[in-house]
Write a structure and sequence with these properties.
By secondary structure, this protein is mostly helical. Helix content is 72%, strand content 0%.
Length: 206
């Protein structure tokens, strides 16, 4: 029998399934989404869904990884010896907050907390696709900053934790709890300026 996997029609069906799964998982949560619902939303049979994804866990991982990939689409945080470090740091902070405060990103946070509360191993996969990926981007940025002598040398993981803690703080917990709105443009600008000021108090070489 000829294998048709990878043909445009198959890829199109896979995309429809992933799009339907992403939408349902974000709207209804992991437990509130079934393979039957996903198939119906995608306009395919349940058998077709299982031909592409062996089970609900596999589909969930694929859908969430793609959602995170699309959310964390910011340009590489690349520096060079002639860069204006403070401007690049501001741009990187802005990109991070824009990503974290996207409506779908906040829904993803709720989803990971739901899974983590159950000690579901899917939470760790989710964490690696979202949070860990962003940490790696920042870690690489600070390694470049140290290489070009913009900041004092230190553990880049520690520097990443500091800048993200300053940017998010208690406010983001309140956003996740629904008792506060994400910052508007003016508030975000001030959050970034304050975060950079405090970060550079510790690490600035000038």
């Amino acid at each position: 029998m000829q294998n048709t996997v990878g043909r445009p029609k198959d890829l199109e069906k896979r995309k429809h399934i992933l799009d339907a799964a992403k939408d349902l998982f974000l709207r209804c949560g992991y437990h509130g989404s079934s393979m039957n619902q996903i198939a119906k939303e995608a306009g395919v049979t349940k058998l077709t869904v299982y031909n592409h994804f062996k089970d609900k866990d596999n589909l969930f991982v694929s859908a969430i990884e793609e959602t995170c990939e699309n959310s964390i689409k910011s340009r590489p945080l690349a520096l060079n010896a002639h860069a204006n470090f403070e401007e690049e740091l501001y741009t990187s902070c802005e990109s991070t907050l824009n990503t974290i405060n996207l409506p779908e990103a906040i829904k993803l946070e709720h989803l990971i907390l739901e899974l983590a509360a159950e000690n579901n191993p899917l939470a760790n996969i989710f964490y690696n696709a979202s949070h860990q990926k962003m940490y790696c981007i920042w870690d690489d940025f600070f390694k470049q900053a140290i290489q070009f002598n913009f900041i004092h040398q230190d553990d880049t993981k520690k520097q990443t934790q500091l800048i993200l803690s300053l940017l998010l703080g208690v406010r983001h917990h309140e956003v996740l709890l629904g008792i506060r709105q994400p910052p508007n443009a003016k508030e975000q600008h001030q959050i970034i300026l304050d975060s950079i000021e405090l970060f550079l108090l510790k690490y600035n070489k000038c």
